[in-house]
């Protein structure tokens, strides 16, 4: 799941490999705790500085006109729960699918690499950016009222950028903690492209629905009807016209339910998790305001930027209960510690839920 939200963080592709063994050495295992300690220490220092800056900026922002945006209302440290102020109600821009789908075997590409060494570098860079922001804060405090008013939006924007990086590094740290403690057999990933959970808003068995339409109920507070049409188009192209759908003789159709927009969330007064809790229980949810586009349980939270129809279809697959089917392995990087590698699942290298760039729905198991 982490790599789906962070394509491009340390690379943007994964590939299959014949070897799935855990390849570490005494040297890499010896240095790894050192890099972990450095990363954790820098992250703790960042959290302290970030909290102090936030308190000061929030107090000063309260003295400014209400038309100016305040910093994010909460200090989230989990990217799946972090919001990005100013993006609520604004879905990402839809791009055409670059690839036509998997026709020929996909060429091998490097895996994604995550490590405490890389995280330590990111965390130290974050500390330096916070130091720079503190300097800008001190200069801003010394300005007169008119100059301070004019300079506030730029300062708040820099604060929000640092906030995003802080959340990303904290999320990466938790990701490494989780998978580095996992037993070797868990690193292999899913053995089949099957659903990890079965939401109550979809039938558990599709056989009785052969030749029929399965309704996918989704609640949304989005008012952009053009974007909602794009979601329907992504479902139609990549699920209903897939080889899997032709074999099962099933097609999906979205049943939209409208929810009112949340002014408190738009103003940064409540967190993303609090916003999600306000949606009615039962159906899937599509909303905006996330730091990144991702699925959290039955909620698809859209972030800023751009997205293709195939990626949208991949995210809809998560709402149906499917997980990301890629594998992981550990590899020695000598004095730079141990790296966690993510690979495209060799069993399903061109499946949509394993590859949201060229994949098609073909071998998934309902």
Please sum up the structure shown.
With about 375 residues, this protein is of the alpha/beta class. The chain is built from ten helices and ten strands. It is flat, with a radius of gyration of 22 Å.
Features:
alpha/beta, flat, 10 strands, five-stranded mixed beta sheet, 15% strand, three-stranded antiparallel beta sheet, 10 helices, 366 residues
Structure description:
Helix content is 41%, strand content 15%. By secondary structure, it is of the alpha/beta class. The relative contact order is 0.20. Residues 1-21 have low confidence and may be disordered. The strands form three sheets. The chain has a five-stranded mixed sheet. A hairpin with a 5-residue loop joins strand 9 (326-332) and strand 10 (338-344).
* Estimated radius of gyration: 22 Å
Low-pLDDT parts are 1-21
Overall mean pLDDT score? 83
Q: Based on CA inertia axes, which overall geometry fits?
A: flat
Query: Treating each run of at least 4 consecutive H or I residues as one helix, how many helices?
Result: 10
Helix proportion range:
40-55%
Amount of beta strand: 5-15%
Largest sheet: 5 strands, mixed
**Care to count the β-strands?**
10
Report strand order across the widest sheet.
Answer: 4-3-5-7-6
**Secondary-structure element string:** HHEEHHHEHHEHHEEEEHEE
Give the terminus-to-terminus CA distance: 20 Å
């Amino acid at each position: 799941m982490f790599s789906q939200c962070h394509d491009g963080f340390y690379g943007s592709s994964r590939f299959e490999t014949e070897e799935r063994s855990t390849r570490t050495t005494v040297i890499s295992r010896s240095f790894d705790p050192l890099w972990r300690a450095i990363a954790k220490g820098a992250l703790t220092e960042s959290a302290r500085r970030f909290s102090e800056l936030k308190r000061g900026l929030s107090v000063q922002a309260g003295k400014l006109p209400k038309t100016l945006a305040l910093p994010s209302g909460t200090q989230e440290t989990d990217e799946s729960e972090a919001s990005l102020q100013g993006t609520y109600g604004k879905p990402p821009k839809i791009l055409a699918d670059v690839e036509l789908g998997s026709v020929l075997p996909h060429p091998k590409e490097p895996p994604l690499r995550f490590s405490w060494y890389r995280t330590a570098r990111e965390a130290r860079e974050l500390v330096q950016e916070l130091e720079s922001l503190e300097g800008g804060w001190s200069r801003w405090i010394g300005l007169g009222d008119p100059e301070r008013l004019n300079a506030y939006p730029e300062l708040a924007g820099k604060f929000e950028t640092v906030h995003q990086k802080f959340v990303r590094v904290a999320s990466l740290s938790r990701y490494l903690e989780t998978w580095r403690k996992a037993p070797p057999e868990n690193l292999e990933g899913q053995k089949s492209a099957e659903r990890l959970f079965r939401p109550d808003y979809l039938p558990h068995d599709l056989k009785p629905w052969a030749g029929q339409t399965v309704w996918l109920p989704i609640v949304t507070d989005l008012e952009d009807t053009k974007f909602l049409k794009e979601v329907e188009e992504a479902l139609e192209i990549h699920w209903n016209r897939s080889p899997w759908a032709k074999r099962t003789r099933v097609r999906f159709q979205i049943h939209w339910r409208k929810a009112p927009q949340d002014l408190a969330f738009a103003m940064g007064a409540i967190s993303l998790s609090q916003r999600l809790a306000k949606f009615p229980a039962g159906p899937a949810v599509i909303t905006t305001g996330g730091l990144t586009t991702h699925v959290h349980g039955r909620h698809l939270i859209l972030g800023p930027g751009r997205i293709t129809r195939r990626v949208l279809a991949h995210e809809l697959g998560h709402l149906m209960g499917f997980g990301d089917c890629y594998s992981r392995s550990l590899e020695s990087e000598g004095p730079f510690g141990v790296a966690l590698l993510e690979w495209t699942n060799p069993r399903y290298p061109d499946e949509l839920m394993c590859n949201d760039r060229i994949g098609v729905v073909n071998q998934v198991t309902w």
